[in-house]
Write a structure and sequence with these properties.
There is one protein chain. With 178 residues, the protein is α+β, with helices and mostly antiparallel strands. It has two domains: 92 residues, no CATH class; 68 residues. It is built from two helices and eleven strands, in the order E-H-E-E-E-E-E-H-E-E-E-E-E. The strands form three sheets. A four-stranded antiparallel β-sheet has the order 2-3-4-5, covered by helices on one side. The N terminus is likely disordered.
């Protein structure tokens, strides 16, 4: 099984929002809380969850929270086709919000290195490996399409299928490769 530290990465981003600024700022001398622009917050969540690959977050839905309410909002983000729970904390006094998620992701760059090591160990082939998409949510059944290029520049199409939430994977020839 392909396993190892560094294969999984925590999606939960809890440190001072990692720069996600609230689109609502407290007005000086304003009466009561400023309403939260939930649409603007939802549009910013992909960049915080996957800073290098926000395009892999297809949708964020925080429902219809009370715009002037307090406390965190439960939201759902769709990451590489998988629904992921996300908690968005409302703006603090400095206008920043925090985002958390218990989901782990497996990064293709990490998996590529593991696949190359597996090929070397199992069949003695030294290859450069590239896998896509850039990330998948870490749970059994998620697949990466990989291409291994041997020293003679021949490409081998492979599929790496996650077998557990720890990033263990099964490696198979890609259907149609011959």
């Amino acid at each position: 099984m392909g396993r190892g530290s560094g294969l999984r990465r925590r999606l939960g981003l809890t440190a001072a929002a990692l720069g996600l600024m609230a689109v609502v700022t407290a007005g000086c001398g304003a009466d009561g809380p400023t309403p939260l622009d939930i649409g603007a917050v939802e549009r910013q969540v992909p960049g915080v969850l996957l800073p290098g690959h926000p395009d892999l977050v297809a949708d964020v839905d925080c429902g219809d929270p009370v715009p002037t309410g307090l406390g965190p909002m439960p939201c759902t983000a769709v990451v590489s086709g998988v629904e992921v729970p996300v908690i968005v904390h409302r703006p603090a006094i400095d206008g920043r919000i925090r985002v958390e998620s218990p989901a782990d992701v497996v990064a293709a760059v990490d998996l590529s290195g593991r696949v190359a090591a597996r090929l070397q160990a199992d069949i003695g082939v030294e290859a450069r490996v590239a896998c896509t998409p850039a990330v998948r949510v870490a749970f059994a059944g998620q697949t990466f399409d990989c291409v291994a290029t041997d020293p003679d520049a021949r490409d081998i199409d492979l599929v790496a299928t996650l077998i557990d939430a720890d990033g263990g994977f099964r490696l198979d020839a890609s259907p149609g490769s011959g």
